Amino acid sequence: MSQQQAVGIDVGGTGIKGALVDIDTGELLSERIKYPTPEGGHPGDIFEVIARIASDCGPVASGLPLGVCVPSVVKNGRTLTAANIATDWIGLEAEKTLEGRLGREIVFLNDADAAGVAEAHYGEAVGAPGLTILTTLGTGIGSALVQDGVLIANTELGHLEIDGEVAEHRSSAVARQRLGQDWQEWAAGLQRYYLHLNRLFSPNLFLLGGGVSKEADHFLHFISLPVPIRIAALRNNAGILGAAFLAHTTRASR
Ligand code: BGC
């Protein structure tokens, strides 16, 4: 049986990384290619880096589905918001524009959504029944809702207001540093946040991702919830894997 493959690219505020992915196993079939995000984070400059990564994946990758995840709400191929990238992404026909440049089909999606899809298919939520909520704690808070393996896109739960404050302004990893909080203080805010999410959505499982998940030993024991909360498994590759997976399934359903 021929191997199913796709290219996944993850656009972040500081780096853009990508790889060729084996869709059946979630393994990377190329090295993990990484370039710095061009200063300003403008679409044209980022598109150039995406094209370079796609070509670095080798000639075998040229006809494969290509998925790109970005820190933005993405609806019908259009990027509607911009976190840590230039504001000229807002309202951009990202899919159509990049497809025109590269002459191939592209699927754009939100970065946290990509991570959620990847965890559901290759990571900590494989086979998880019902609703899984992944939150990525970094500069902001990204969220992904996955119901029985199916993504409900663009939930943006980092933007919920709790006690009159946008959650990501108080509970992201960067907010902890900005506020000078120790792990326990920060975890108290996170606990309040997750309890609120639990009240609204009654998930079966919470996953905590983002760079700070490497430091879970410092804070996870301070968080006590009526449902399990686990550390996401795929770390730095989650966006790449989820983008590739979704590009593959989108192509297959066309
Ligand atoms: C953005 C989300 C993004 C998250 C993580 C938030 O500030 O609103 O779209 O998924 O940061 O990058």
At the third CATH level, what is the topology name of the largest domain? Nucleotidyltransferase, domain 5
Overall domain count: 2
The topology string of helices and strands comes to EEEEHEEEHEHEEEEEHHHEEH
Q: So what's the CATH class of the largest domain?
A: Alpha Beta
Describe the biggest sheet? 6 strands, mixed
What is the number of helices? 7
Can you describe this structure?
The protein is of the alpha/beta class and 254 residues long. The protein folds into 2 domains: 5-113 and 236-253, Nucleotidyltransferase, domain 5 (2-Layer Sandwich), CATH 3.30.420.40; 127-232, Nucleotidyltransferase, domain 5, CATH 3.30.420. Helix content is 32%, strand content 25%. It has 7 helices and 15 strands. The chain has helices at residues 43-56, 94-102, 111-122, 167-171, 173-179, 183-201, 238-253, and strands at 5-11, 15-22, 27-28, 33-36, 66-70, 74-75, 78-79, 106-110, 131-137, 141-147, 150-152, 161-162, 165-166, 205-209, 229-231. The strands form 4 sheets. Strands 1, 2, 3, 4, 5 and 8 form a 6-stranded mixed beta sheet that branches. A 5-stranded mixed beta sheet has the order 11-10-9-14-15. β6 and β7 (78-79) form a beta hairpin. α3 crosses α7 (238-253). The structure holds beta-D-glucopyranose.
From the structure above, extract its key features:
single chain, Nucleotidyltransferase, domain 5, five-stranded mixed sheet, 254 residues, alpha/beta, 2 domains
